[in-house]
Amino acid sequence: MFKTVDFIIFGCFLTFSILVGVYHAIKAKSKAASGHGESAEFLVGGRKLPIFPVCLSLLTTFISGIALLGLPAEIYQRGALLGLGFIPGAISFLISGYFFVPIFYKLQFTSVYEYMEVRYDSRLLRRVGSSLFLISTLFYMAVVLYAPSVALVGVTDLPLWPFILAVGAVSTIYTAIGGIKAVIWTDTLQAVFMYIGLGTLLIKGVSDAGGLANIFELAERTGHMSDSVFKFDPTPFQYDSFWIIILGGVLHWTCFYGLNQMALQRYCSMPSLRHARVVMTCTVPAFWAIGLMCGFIGLLCLAYFHGCDPVAIGEIESMDQMSILLAARVLAIIPGMPGLFLASLYSATLSTTSSGANSMTAVIWEDFLKDSYSHWSEAKITKLMKALAFAIGAASTLLAFACDYMGGIFNAATTTLSATAAPLVGLFFLGVFVPKANKNGAFAGLICALMITIMCSIANNIEKPYKNYVLPLTPNANNPNCRDLALNSSTHADVHISVFKHHTGPHPHQSHKDWHYGDPNSSLLARTSPFSYAVIGISVVMIVGTIVSHLFPVKLPEQKAYLAAACTYAGRDLKFDKSTYGSELQAVVNNKLSSVSSEKESGKYLNFFAD
Fold first, then answer.
1. pLDDT tens string 29-58
2. Residue 277 and residue 407: Cα distance in Å, rounded?
3. Which of these, 529, 518, 488, 522, lies nearest to 506 by C-alpha position?
4. Where do runs of H (alpha helix) occur along 3-109?
5. Which residue, 81, 374, 440, 539, could crosslink 552 as a Cys pair with Cβ 3.0–4.6 Å?
6. Of residues 229, 291, 298, 299, the one with CA closest to residue 256
């Protein structure tokens, strides 16, 4: 389905991405020669990053192949409700911009997990938080590397491994040599490719599928619209519901666009807090637009393939390949356009993996290596960072091959990433909103939340309680897109391929509503909705952490109490100079305390941590 010209266009795109990295590596060296820190350029771009590229980089970091391939496949199989998950994303930006970003911008930590040590007075908690981030991000990078590669395998004669190695190698190279500026400017290029590719596919696809009216009418008739969306059962032991998607979506996106190293590293790299908030504001409409486009591809697939499910007829092997098959068919009449779609697909993947590698490098250096190697020269430190980025890229590429055993890219991303990210974000919620929270409560809350979410994730991946939850498909002999395909209507009618693949016979139409609550023989942990992990993880940390902190209080010395208070929302106006955090702590904090407007106000902040 893809011709030589398509792969030439795709190859040019990959080459240009590497060239951007080379350019910024050379530019960083020139700045280092003129007095700028080369390592600072590599991690935070000298804290002078431009607004528009950062906005697009932030967008493409978390809109990866998971969204471009996994979300349409989910909507095709289970309805449009998941597409609503992008709506509460705006609320998460508001929460992050109002409560969290001002605090972290004031702190100016290169690794946001330095917050754990300052707020809770625990180096161990800082390193535990950093380790959780490193593990979850490495898995996330692996999943997004796997996503487009497995899709392309279904429509080409090539094996899986060349695609994974190609995109892994490219993202590793330009990230390792160019640093965050290469990441951000390449992300900008990739965002443009992504919008052009998706826009072209949607315009041509809507025409081929019979128009907007036909698409929405079919979605409503097959239960993919109102029947899918208006599910208000509050129980978490179901695949999804309106409340799970909306409420869970707010905290889910806060985990990524609010309290995530990859996001906060960009916000804190802006020239001012106002610039950081402008970035967040500008990202919201772009975020909604790309979410709407990804979700609509699912409905477009439903109409385009109505009556000739491509997995049922053996044209592809996995629902994750649906979007790429649609693009190959719809854009085939325009030379080079399938190649442009490949570029847009891999744009999202390259952005995510490069951002992850750069952020992981920052965390490893700041939280594990800096104390031992800070005496090194800038040149040696930068070389070490580049070696770290290269090693991270190689590790994520190797791990990508394991994703083939996790039941689809959307499930793999949701269950593995949220299970570790949510409890970690809960520590930030606890630290910011509960002034008397201490390290005892933080450890207790984190352990309890991790036990629950990880057990849910493991049970979900092993038992797969929702593998048979799919909306039924019906035959359609009049679909012109099926005219060359011979269908066996006796097995295709009222049967969806995911059900058909797991059973020797057709499954009754009415059973799909029961499967929405999962296999009754599976455990409650397995049936806990993956989209509720963020709510569960953050809530458990907050509840357990608050209770344990009150039962087992910790009395901090004055200087540490001041710094901890500056890390809370109530103490957001307290000054914090990062240069004071270290060996000169006592003297400088005493000076800070004397600058507080009154003795009463000073005592107010210190008493946050009193028994």
1. 666 555 555 666 666 555 677 888 888 888
2. 38
3. 488
4. 4-33, 38-44, 51-62, 65, 71-78, 89-95, 101-107
5. 440
6. 291
